[in-house]
Amino acid sequence: MKYDVVIIGGGPAGMISAISASSLGAKVLLIEKNDKLGNKLLLTGGGRCNLTCIEKSNKEFCSKFGKNGDFLLSSFSIFNFQKAIEFFEDLGIKKEGNKIYPISENSKDVLKFLLSKLKENKVKILTSSPVSEIKRDDDKIKSIILSSGEVIEGRKYIICTGGKSYGVTGSTGDAFAWDIGHTITELKPALTPIEIKEKWTKSLQGISLKDICITVNKKKYCGDLLFTHFGLSGPMILNISKNIKPKDIIILDLFPNKNKEELDKYFQKIFEKKKNKFVSTFLSDFIPEKLIPFILNFSSIPKTRKINNLTKEERLRLVRVVKEIEFNVAGLLGFDKAMITSGGISLKEVDSKTMKSKIINNLYFAGEVLDIDGPSGGYNLQVCWTTGYVAGINSIKDD
User: Fold this and answer.
1) pTM strictly above 0.85
2) Can you tell me the distance from the alpha carbon of 294 to that of 292, in angstroms, rounded to the nearest whole number?
3) How far is CA 55 from the centre of its chain?
């Protein structure tokens, strides 16, 4: 049997590609190497599935992806975050800040919703079917060969195999090894925790810091940070991780809204009212309890020191320490812990309006396999919905 569209990869991009193509009456085959679809989808948003997020405009949304963001503008005019909200409306959605979740806050319900759409559109699904080879004849794919030896033929093909992150879910970068004639830009783990050399932070595992700032390589980043047993994580850390290298120094500022002089005056003002309090008690109003002994140690202030016995030198050291806690980067945790992959199919070789290959006439791409990645918070999942929908529709319209 020859299919109108053969889609490789049963993640978010693959499923919505199949739904959009089949909605136009196409005979669609969706191939997944795992024994079920959507393994990685189930992990998104910590299992809550942050479907997308709302920005002021398409341009504002796409700007979050840096220099490659402009590639998305054309496809966003077809299927943007508002369209995604409409698509999932029957599932029931809830807004939390600018983030959109299913009303149940359960990614399993999102998967069930997508599976019901696939069934409704009569999409044929092959699971436990790894692709071992892609046969092409110059500028056209002729067929794909499954590991079982079965030959699959289609008029059009969409590759939605994802990147190399979270290999346990099946994202192992398979497409990057196939003979599809495309340039693969450097693959790096993105949205991944950072390992640091300092061992003292192990006792802070699970503690989070809200609305703080860090400086790395003279660039300042602000947001929330989480201590782990190996180092640092949390939204801010994940979002900058692809720009971090071993031996980089991260400087943590616990009071980013005041410079040292302003902070010193602020401390003195409070000290006047709390002269008989221990310095540690004073700090507990601003800093997590477990972090305080280290702050005192770095400031060379005894644990039993009261505010009225604090010297000017000790106070100035305290100000400096809370503004400049240093961490030495050992490295990133790698693809196995990364949420997404930076790098992939070169965007120069893909038509941004249709997701069609500029090299292979009957080939399209969607999702994380493309060289585009953004911050956490629904941005990358929206790219799957957008590029998947556009690839699916155009694989049928482009005849």
Assistant:
1) yes
2) 5
3) 17
Residue with tokens 């202030």: 301
Residue where the block lists tokens 């794919």? 141
- Tell me which residue has tokens 């033929």: 153
**Stretch 380-386: mean pLDDT, rounded?**
97
- 126-159 pLDDT per residue, tens: 999 999 999 998 899 999 999 999 999 999 999 9
- Residue 244 token pair: 């971090």
Classify strands 124-126 and 28-31 as parallel, antiparallel or unpaired.
parallel
Domains along the chain with CATH numbers = 2-189+338-397 (3.50.50.60), 193-333 (1.10.8.50)
Alpha carbon distances (Å) from 39 to 193, 241, 383:
21, 24, 17
